[in-house]
Structure to design on (228 residues):
């Protein structure tokens, strides 16, 4: 199963953009790239996902490299509430459900006021 | 909507005691999951249920049993708790109607300590 590599921690200032990188050099053509985040003392929550094209939603944007070996989660204006651990995960299309997800340690994002 | 509800939020057990962690979802999802989260490790899947009436082992099933009571509820049982089972447990659900858009929804977790 394909795995991802993320920096252990990052820091940002409030109201500035944040770019969270993820490397997935062994990604297969049918793996979706999913991002979740986990706020302190809470369960993970879905952020965004994509396959090949860049994606936007109300929470964030996902930029996917042309070769799909890396991706970047973009928070356009960080708020204090965005301080969390961000997980980049590959979700095989063929899997009937999410049982094959491999959760790494993610990136711990600190947001300074 | 409540989403995924887990009870209890905190629990302390003595070695050898048994207990059941409860999980219920109100989103009419078919799939449900139990994960554990330990310091320095990612989430690890204990058991999952693809649909009502079916359960399957995940990555770390030893020492646990599960019951998919109905479509809403998925419980996790520790028959004889061990200190190695000290962890934060998360229940999750998903609706695999479309693999391209399937998302996991998590509960807020149960912090379990086994002394």
């Amino acid at each position: 199963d394909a795995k991802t590599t993320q920096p252990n921690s990052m820091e940002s200032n409030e109201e500035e953009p944040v770019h969270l990188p993820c490397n997935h050099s062994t990604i297969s053509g049918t793996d979706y790239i999913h991002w979740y985040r986990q706020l302190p003392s809470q369960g993970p929550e879905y952020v965004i996902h994509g396959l090949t094209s860049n994606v936007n939603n109300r929470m964030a944007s996902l930029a996917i490299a042309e070769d799909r070996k890396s991706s970047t989660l973009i928070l356009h204006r960080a708020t204090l509430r965005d301080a969390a651990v961000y997980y980049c995960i590959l979700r095989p299309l063929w899997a009937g459900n999410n049982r094959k997800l491999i959760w790494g340690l993610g990136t711990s994002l600190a947001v300074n006021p | 909507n409540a989403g995924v509800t887990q009870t209890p939020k905190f629990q302390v057990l003595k070695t050898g005691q048994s207990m059941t962690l409860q999980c219920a979802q109100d989103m009419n999802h078919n799939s449900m999951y139990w994960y554990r989260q330990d310091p320095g490790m990612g989430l690890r899947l204990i058991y999952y249920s693809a649909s009502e009436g079916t359960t399957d082992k995940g990555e770390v099933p030893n020492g646990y049993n599960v019951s998919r009571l109905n479509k809403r509820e998925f419980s996790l049982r520790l028959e004889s708790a061990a200190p190695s089972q000290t962890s934060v447990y998360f229940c999750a659900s998903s609706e695999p109607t479309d693999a391209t858009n399937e998302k996991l929804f998590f509960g807020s977790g149960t912090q379990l300590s086994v002394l």
Observations:
- Chain A has a mean pLDDT of 91.
